[in-house]
């Protein structure tokens, strides 16, 4: 029975990977590694468990993803996002490693980035992701997946972009959303399915994996406001010009490379919401 490690199993994408494993990786022995299950910063404990369980695949989702937290403590961001990844990459020298990265490794000056585009990260979070990518890609057996805004239902209720917006509206906040910042939002359940399909095909490399629709923060807010009228959602249109620090304007991703390998089309967010009106989101 194939043993698979999934780090960050208590997060959004990691949890969807664990929950969908029986469907997409039947028979696999999936180890859901939450922070409580294994402290990834404890290299001795990680090495010991790796030797004991001998996984044949690691899907590494764990990270410090909150950009403000990374900006406030760059050393911690580097420890969690770069040093932990380097340790896992070393252990996975002879097996498959799939590392989850971000569209924010780009500076957002052009948008529609494909895998040949040169990263130019603006934030500490993005810089740590770009550094970790370089480490992972030194091994030709490893895979880096850059994704965008992921939504869904997380164990803690605050990891998906939709959950953060919902929480704000439930507390009565009025959200000011950028009309000139663009991403490629995607449901985390779709991301998880695509990752499982890539893992099964065993075609390592660098891939962009996101929704097929380029949307601004403002447009995303409008879509979710229409979905949740019972929350009395309030939004205001704003601009990146109001933001005090450098921020990528358009990190939309071209996912043509990965699309050729998938059995299903990557959905546009607007259509996905319309087709899944009853799905918790």
What does this molecule look like?
The protein has a 6-stranded parallel sheet with strand order 2-1-3-4-5-10, with helices on both faces. Strands 6-9 form a two-stranded parallel sheet. Strands 7-12 form a two-stranded parallel sheet. The protein is of the alpha/beta class and about 280 residues long. About 45% of the residues are buried. Strand 4 (about 95-100), helix 5 (about 125-135) and strand 5 (about 145) form a beta-alpha-beta unit. The protein is about 40% helix and about 15% strand. It has helices spanning about 10-25, 45-55, 65-70, 75-90, 125-135, 160-170, 190-200, 215-225, 255-260, 270-275; strands at about 5, 30-35, 55-60, 95-100, 145, 150, 175-180, 180-185, 185, 205-210, 215, 235-240.
- The CATH C-level class name: Alpha Beta
Order of SSEs, N→C? EHEHEHHEHEEHEEEHEEHEHH
Mean pLDDT: 96
* DSSP E strands, number: 12
Number of helices: 10
The portion of residues forming beta strands comes to: 15-25%
